[in-house]
Each structure stands twice: as C-alpha cells, then as structure tokens.
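Database export, one record per block. Field names are fixed; values are copied verbatim from the stored entry.
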Amino acid sequence: MKRTLLLTSLLGLVTLLLAACGGGTQQWKTTNITGVMPDLKFTLTDENGKTVHADAWRGKVKLMYFGYAHCPDICPLTLATVGRAISQLGDQSDAVRVLFVSVDPKRDPPPVLKEYTQAFGPEFVGLTGTQDQLKALSKRYRVSYSYGEPDANGEYAVNHSSAVFVFDKNGDVRLLMNREDGADAMAHDLRQLVNAS
C-alpha cells in the first residue's frame, strides 16, 4: 500500500514537472532557426541618412529583409505580406520593426528608401550601406545578391534572397519566414516573440 502510494506520488510529481517544462514551449508556424545563424549585428545608414547599429532597436522584435526599392515583384509582395501580419498584432505592432536592407545603394539613397518603406507602414525602416558593409552583412547571414546587366536606359535587375530573418527583443536569431508562409502564420509567430519576456 505504501509502495503504491509512493509510486503514485512520484508519477504525479513527474507529470507536474513535465507539464511545467512543456507549458512554455513555443510552437512555430514558420521555420525555427534559433542558434543556427548569428545574432543581429551591423553598422548601416538609415533612411534619414544617419549611421545606425543593430542595437538601435533593442527591445523590439526585428525582421530583416534584403532587397531593393526598384524590385518589381518579390520585394513589394513580401513586404506587403509582412505588413498584413503586423497589422494583425493590433496595439502590439509597435513592438516590431522591419529592417529593409537595400542591396542597391546606387539607386536607393535614403530619401528613396524612406518613401518606399513608408508605403508599407510605420514599422518599416529603410537601411543601406557601402558595398563593403552590405557584403559583410550578407555574408554574415549567408545571403547572396548580384546585379544584372544594365539595359539601354541604365536600368538593371538585382537578384537577391527572398527570406525574412526574425530576431527577438535581444537581437538573437529565432525564425526564418517566407512570403509563402502567409500573413496568419507570420502573425502567430510574431505575437509569441512580442509576448515573450
């Protein structure tokens, strides 16, 4: 009888401990890359022409996307999807910043970036830098980009990654999102990061 009571008590304790461990587990709908990539770190120029560092947005959940303002399709579609996800956060949307890093500094000076990012919402910030800064940042996150041949008018396409890197409030990498994930899945995961202590 005592042995049965002891086993029952131990089983109950183990069940409680397992529930406590699993209770705070986050369930992601996008790709979890925690610990796979380095934390957020850079020195770039913002859309107001000022030098900024990654820690300028410490305390906010940060999404970083590499693209360019003259992009005809992938960039605006991806950023619009991210914008729809952020709008689902309601009052919590101010806890998120989208860092749009232009890899086309020649055509995307700060005023162009500012006009471009404002079209998606107040949570979007345009960034760019020198080629050395951009190459260092793209290498850090294993992102590639390249320029096509200019046409008769000097216009050219830029091939670039379409992934969105997501960092928590401390700047640690957490998630990788794609437009195909959809706004609902993005919003679900962003809400968890915003609510995390």
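Remark 1: The CA atoms of residues 158 and 173 lie 26 Å apart.
Remark 2: Residues 1-23 have pLDDT under 50 and may be disordered.
End of record.
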